[in-house]
Specification:
- There is one protein chain.
- By secondary structure, this protein is α/β, with parallel strands linked by helices.
- Helices cover about 40% and strands about 20% of the residues.
- Among the domains are: about 190 residues, TIM Barrel (Alpha-Beta Barrel), CATH 3.20.20; about 130 residues, Alpha-isopropylmalate synthase LeuA, regulatory domain (Double Stranded RNA Binding Domain, 2-Layer Sandwich).
- An eight-stranded parallel beta barrel has the order 1-2-3-4-5-6-7-8, surrounded by nine helices. The protein has a three-stranded antiparallel β-sheet with strand order 11-12-13, with helices on one face. The chain has a three-stranded antiparallel β-sheet with strand order 14-15-16.
- Helix 1 links the parallel strand 1 and strand 2.
């Protein structure tokens, strides 16, 4: 039987202390619902005594159907010289209405004497009395021993006294915090074993990532006997972040044989990561283990040739097990195997003698030498393969375009684009304005083509990126423009390269529209 490790998510509290992570009370409730669906046992909603937003979150959370998780309120021990029942922060924990509360106290003598300015004895009383009071009010109490590993390094005996104070007060679980994120995994294991031999209550681990070791320290703690791991989705958190629960789950359950969540939930791991990223309005990190877009992406020709025979050759697990997918990239490092794999994936037929593959590889290498990157623009890659193999017919032809920008000192600038295209034997001349030259050109092109291809109206722009390829030319440097577009069914990326940013944008825009038209024709 697998040993169960209890997961404690603090995305909604500790995660929001990270730079650029801002969640409204409604955002937090949406994420809490997703964590509930994923069967995370504990979800820390916030610190109700610290700000109105967290207090409001707990008010509206009572309307949510969170039956698979315990919503938890976070706060500190009582203030020095104050009874717990008279402390406003402690009272806020009770008024939050949740059945589980987490309180943190000081384990490091430096923090007690220099930061709080209290005696070591008073610090112990603050811990013991706060935990006992909350237990007496019928709450499950999780005690977070802040800065425990630093405190243990400075004065092991006193650090252990703080844990015993929490246990004597009635804490259900004591969590050891590597708050500064500077402890090494071997040391974490040694200290956890020492604590396990002293306390009778379950032990947890709360690791920060300042040395890039939050995951390693969490795993080391579990191997030494800890049965709770605290962390955040995607590792969000203060400074360098917290232990990433995505990787914690992946490693503990899929590599080490522990039980964290129901096995069937693992296929939703990628979805969970991306959902939280979307709500937090933070772009997903492509290289994130298990769930990142690049986690199972293969670029080198040797690698692709191998995974075509057996994916285990270059993959530590099947990406579908965590809801991810295998991707083969095409670049100047690619061989025929990459092209043949992508062609099958795109349902494009190639000649059986390898001639088409060699031609495509040669053209890709030539274009990437000029600054193109097809591994980030698969829409343009599909079109390139079709064009090189003679399977693509241009749906329209550019005759000319002109873009003008006017700026005066009294107001914002204006941009206008005039474009002339031909579709078959018919020509169309159209003008449009825009917020900038590229927007004006996009508006004019869409306006001209909608008459012939009304489905263009369901396209939308997702992202527009410009990158200087080599800055030595100053403002005359060659640039790469990447455009992400979408319709109701798909998102695709296209690319353009030129010393002229308008021309590069034009290339990417045309590829985007041509891809849409070709895709719709293919789907008929």
């Amino acid at each position: 039987m697998r040993t169960q490790i209890t997961l404690y998510d603090t995305t909604l509290r500790d995660g929001t202390q990270g730079e650029q992570v801002n969640l409204s009370a409604e955002d937090k409730l949406r994420i809490a619902g997703k964590l509930n669906d994923f069967c995370i046992p504990y979800v820390e909603g916030g610190w109700p005594g610290s700000n109105p937003k967290d207090a409001r979150f707990f008010e509206i959370a009572h309307t949510a159907d969170l039956q698979k998780t315990r919503l938890t309120a976070f706060g500190s021990t009582r203030r020095a010289g104050t009874l717990p029942r008279e402390d406003r922060n402690v009272d806020a924990l009770l008024r939050s209405g949740v059945s589980t509360v987490t309180v943190f106290g000081k384990s490091w003598n430096l923090h007690a004497t220099e930061i709080l300015g209290v005696s070591l004895k008073e610090n112990l009383n603050m811990i013991r009395e706060t935990v006992a009071y909350l237990r007496g009010e019928g709450r499950e109490v999780i005690y977070d021993a802040e800065h425990f590993f630093d405190g243990f390094q400075a004065d092991p005996a006193y650090a252990m006294e703080t844990l015993r104070a929490a246990e004597e007060g009635g804490a259900h679980t004591v969590v050891l915090c590597d708050t500064n994120g500077g402890t090494m995994p071997r040391r974490v294991g040694e200290v956890v074993e020492r604590v396990m031999g002293t306390l009778q209550v379950p032990i947890g681990m709360h690791a920060h990532n300042d040395c890039g070791l939050a995951l390693a320290n969490s795993l080391a703690a579990v191997e030494s006997g800890a049965t709770m791991v605290q962390g955040t989705i995607n590792g969000y958190g203060e400074r360098c972040g917290n232990a990433d629960l995505i990787s914690v789950i992946g490693n503990l359950q899929m590599k080490m044989g522990y039980f964290c969540v129901p096995d069937e939930k693992l296929k939703a791991l990628t979805e969970l990561s991306r959902y939280v990223s979307e709500v937090a309005n933070i772009p997903p990190f492509n290289q994130r283990p298990f769930v990142g877009k690049s986690a199972f992406a293969h670029k080198g020709g040797v690698h692709v040739s191998a995974i075509r025979k057996n994916p285990r050759a270059y993959e530590h697990l099947n990406p579908e097990q965590v809801g991810n997918r295998r991707r083969v990239l095409v670049s100047d490092m690619s061989g025929k195997s990459n092209i043949e794999y992508k062609a099958r994936e795109m349902e494009i037929k190639l000649g059986g003698n390898g001639y088409d593959s060699r031609r495509i590889v040669g053209e890709i290498k030539r274009l990437e030498d000029e600054g193109y990157e097809f591994d980030v623009a698969e829409g343009s890659l599909e079109l390139l393969i079709k064009k090189v193999t003679g399977q693509f017919k241009d749906p329209f032809t550019l005759e000319s375009f002109r873009v003008t920008t006017e700026k005066n000192r009294s107001g914002p600038g204006t941009c206008q684009a005039t474009i002339k295209i031909s579709v078959g034997e018919e020509e169309e001349i159209t003008a449009a304005e825009g917020d900038g030259p590229v927007n004006a050109l996009d508006n004019a092109l869409r306006k001209a083509l909608t008459k012939f291809f009304p489905q263009i109206g369901e396209m939308g722009l997702v992202d527009f990126k410009v990158r200087v390829i080599d800055g030595r030319g100053g403002t005359a440097s060659k640039v790469r423009v990447q455009i992400d577009s979408r319709d109701p069914r798909e998102i695709w990326s296209t690319i353009g390269v030129s010393e002229n940013i308008i021309e590069a944008s034009w290339e990417a825009l045309v590829d985007s529209i041509e891809y849409k038209l070709w895709k719709d024709t293919k789907d008929l």
